[in-house]
Structure formats: structure tokens, C-alpha cells
Amino acid sequence: MDFFQRQTIFFVLVLAVIALILVFVFKDNRGTSYAEAETIGGDVATFEELSDRFANLSKEKGALYAFEVLRRAKLPPQTDLHLLAHVVGDELYKEKGVAGIIHCTQEFRNACSHSLVIGTLNDFGEGGLDDIREACKQAPGGGGAYTMCYHGLGHGVFSHFSFHFPETVDFCKKTGTEAYFDREYIECVGGAVMELMGGGGHDPYNWRIAREQYLSSDNPLDLCLGDEIPEKAKEICLIYLTPEIWNAVGIELGSPDPQKFSDAFSLCDAVPATKQHLRDACFGGFGKEFIPLVAARDIRGVDALSDAEYKTAASWCMEARAQDGRRACITEAVASLFWGGENDPEASFRFCNLVDPELTEACFSRLASDIDSFVREDERKRELCNRIPDSFSSQCSNTAL
């Protein structure tokens, strides 16, 4: 073999190696391309049909594979990705049980961990509480992952007890601990309220009966301000009540008319100023909804929205006539955007710099507080706290020294 032939063989081998490298580079690190992401949301008529497609994909190729597809999938606008991720999470529980929570990221607003603790509850009832607590401690994510795990449990508790609040509240109380100031209990009740707002997938008949029993279009705040919800959980109830407040003034959740937001905000004025924390919760729930809404419900990329989209969400908060209402709306909007530190914090800083100047302080103060509460790594916390303007940084100044 002459020199030229040896050189030719050498270059052919080099090209082959390069080709193999490119194959892996342009695929997932598992060597998988997730081709279904391009087609699974195509020509879908209903959310139920889309759910069935993801359930079938989970059964055929595994729930973890289906989650990867969901991260990439082209889906119709206004698709509720949180509920869709619950469908995949249900299949993950069937595969791995509650131990599968180690695979649950905070994407899709904790839907994965929610499904696993709900599955444990349905299989073991109160006897599964210890397993649920240990699983929630293993939930991946920042400082809020553990307590948000109990929010997911609340969805399941409400369904487990056929959508009756007395039994649900009694059960949720058993989850609270002194170490977390009963936050597990509060989040559990919040999850139950959210289930009443837009759940019912596992038992639509009894869910509809519960909505007729507990909700009044004439007085939508009655659920949270009445006797069904204990004082300790009234605040979180109001935060999750927003869809029902919107329904009361004729706002369509899929395509809301911003001109009606003012009418909806006015219903929160029924909460007296003597109960400021409850007023803030009622108004704040709007901000929590505005961030996903401006993203057409695609919660996968709320931290990558444009400045124009953030300005739109902030402008909707300005539809509140009451100054404290505008403030509460903005603070919950930035909290929804920051999401316990799980989203890119750059988005939250960008948002606060775009809000109306009269609300800049409120926005940065809430962001500072959430950084202090949820970011665990000292160096990262100092870095973020040092970016808060000095005049607004008191909530996290102790970590910025």
C-alpha cells in the first residue's frame, strides 16, 4: 500500500468519526431525536385528544421519553401544559412509583411531582403520608420544591374525597409541620382550590357537582371568605380563585378581553382594607395568571418572552383602579415569573425594569424577598441580591454583604 492510499484511508476514517460526532451533537444526549415533537400536536381537535396522544406515547416509549417530547413539542396556542404534564406524570407513577420523583424537574410548574404524590395518595390514602413526605423532600429544585409538592397533593386530596372541602381540609392539616410553619397544609388547600377552578379530569361528574355547590357567579369570593376555607388558608384560596372571578364578569379564559379586567379587579374591592393580606391575595391572583396568559399558556418559555410581552402583562395590572390592587398584581406577576428561582432570573429583572415607575419599588422588593427565600447557594444569592437597586434591597441585604 503506497503513501497516497494510506493517506486516503486515513482521511476517510477521520470523516467517518466526524460524521458520528455530528450525529450525537444534533441529537439529544441520549442519542434520541424525539421526532414526535414535530407531529404530536398537529391536527388535534381537543385537549382530551392531545392528552390521549401523550398518554399513549408514555406507554409506548416511557414517561421520561414523553416528557422530553413535551419539552420540545409544537402545540396549539392556549394549551394547558401543566395539565398535559400531569398526564405524563401519571404514567411515570405507574412505571416507577413515588420514587420516580427524583426525575421530576420544576418544568411545567411542578406537574410531574404533583402526579406522583397524587398517585401515592390514591393507592395508599392516609397511610401513604410518610412516603409522600419523604418523596417531597427529594423533589428536585430550589427552596420551594418541597412545599409546592404539597400543592400537587392538594389536587389529589380534593379528588380523593369526591371534591368535598371539609374532608380535604382535615386531611391537609395533617401534612403541616412546625419546621415549615404549616406551609405544607396551606399549599395543600391551595391545590384543592386550584383543582376546583380547572381540574376534574379524573372524576368530571362529581367535579361539576362541587362547582355548583361551592361557587357562585354572583358572589365568586364567597368560597374563600366563607366558612368552607379556614382562616389560615383564605389567602392562598384567593390567589387561586382568579379564573372564577374572571368568569363572573364574562371573561373567556382562552381568549380574555383585557377591557374587562377592570370589572374583574373591582370584585376584589369587596375585600375590606382591614384585611389587607386578603385584598392583596385577591388582586395578586391576577398577576399570577397574566404571565402565562401573555405567553398563550405556554409556560415552557415565560422567562424568554419579549419586552413587549412583559409590558403587556404589566399594563393589564394597571387596569386595577385601586393602587394597592395594582401593586399586588405586579408583585405576584414577578413571583410567577421568578417561580421560586426555577426560571431564568434575568427575566424577572427585565420585568421589574419595564413596569410603571410607581410600581418599580414593589416589583423589586418582592423579587428581593423571593431571592432571599428560594435561592439556596450563598454565592448565587449574593450575586442576585447585589443586582437589586439599593433602595429596594432590604429583603435580601443580609445576604448581599
How many beta-strand runs?
Answer: 0
| Secondary-structure element string | HHHHHHHHHHHHHHHHHHHH
* Largest beta-sheet characterization: none
- Tally of separate helices: 20
- N→C terminal distance: 71 Å
The low-confidence runs, each spanning 5 or more residues with pLDDT under 50, are 7-30
Average of the residue pLDDT scores: 87
User: Oligomeric status of the shown chains?
Assistant: single chain
Radius of gyration: 23 Å
Structure description:
Helices cover 63% and strands 0% of the residues. By secondary structure, the chain is mostly helical. It has 2 domains: 166 residues, no CATH class; 153 residues, no CATH class. Helix 9 crosses helix 12. The termini are far apart.
List the helices and strands and how they pair.
Elements: H1 3-25, H2 47-61, H3 63-72, H4 81-96, H5 107-124, H6 129-137, H7 145-160, H8 165-173, H9 183-198, H10 204-214, H11 222-225, H12 231-240, H13 242-248, H14 261-268, H15 276-294, H16 307-317, H17 323-338, H18 345-354, H19 360-374, H20 378-385
In short:
This protein is mainly α and 401 residues long.
Keywords:
mainly alpha; 0% strand; 2 domains
